[in-house]
Amino acid sequence: MGASLQRVRELAESAAESEGCRLVEVVIAQEGGGPVLRVTIERPDLTETPTEADSETPTEADSEATSEDGQEQAMIYRSGVTVDDCKAVNDWLTDDPDVDALMPGRSWRLEVTSPGIQRPLNSVEDYRRFIGFPIKLRTFAPTAVTTTEGETVTRKRFRGELLGGSD
């Protein structure tokens, strides 16, 4: 019997921490070439809050917001992960027999990556850390909301600013 995904998550968390990173998520995805074990890591010490962000030109891995009047706001998120960080975590996991045991006898691919601009929020800690940042939210079921004009509409996709996070 193969190792559990939870065990692989524990190994990935240890590998990320050994490189000064934080584990964002571990996912097994089915893609055209077969199964992919995707490990996403970040450097939490480089995440900036909206009020601390500087006016540097954002990179592709940054998230920026545009206000209603079209002006760019300095809300920048950087994962801070380098190629060397990803390689080190990849090497650490590749050498562990529990990772191989997750999908025994199958050909699969291991990817270690940074979260990028579409960074998921997976825990209460994540929500708290990103208060003040712009977010996109998708719900499974349509949700009734009242517009500023007082009309009730049903939607599954929302955009806004993250105002808080609690248990």
Cα distance spanning the termini: 35 Å
Give helix % range: 10-25%
Mean pLDDT metric: 78
Element string (H = helix, E = strand): HEEEEHHEHEE
Radius of gyration: 19 Å
Continuous helix count: 4
Query: What form results from the Cα inertia axes?
Result: elongated
Number of strands: 7
Strand content: 25-35%
User: Which structural class best describes the helix and strand composition?
Assistant: alpha+beta
Task: Identify the strand order in the major beta sheet.
Answer: 1-2-5
- Poorly predicted spans: 49-75
How would you describe what is shown here?
By secondary structure, the chain is an alpha+beta fold. Helices cover 22% and strands 31% of the residues. Strands 1-2-5 form a three-stranded mixed β-sheet. Strand 1 and strand 2 (34-42) form a beta hairpin. Helix 1 packs across helix 2. The longest helix has 14 residues, at 5-18. It starts with a helix and ends in a 6-residue tail after the last strand.
Topology overview:
Elements: H1 5-18, E1 22-31, E2 34-42, E3 65-66, E4 72-73, H2 83-94, H3 97-100, E5 109-113, H4 124-129, E6 134-146, E7 152-161
Parallel strand pairs: 2-5
Antiparallel strand pairs: 1-2, 3-4, 6-7
Summarize the structure.
The protein has 167 residues and is α+β, with helices and mostly antiparallel strands. The protein has 4 helices and 7 strands; from the N terminus they run H-E-E-E-E-H-H-E-H-E-E.
Question: Characteristics of this structure?
Answer:
single chain; about 170 residues; alpha+beta; three-stranded mixed β-sheet; two-stranded antiparallel sheet; 7 strands; about 20% helix; elongated
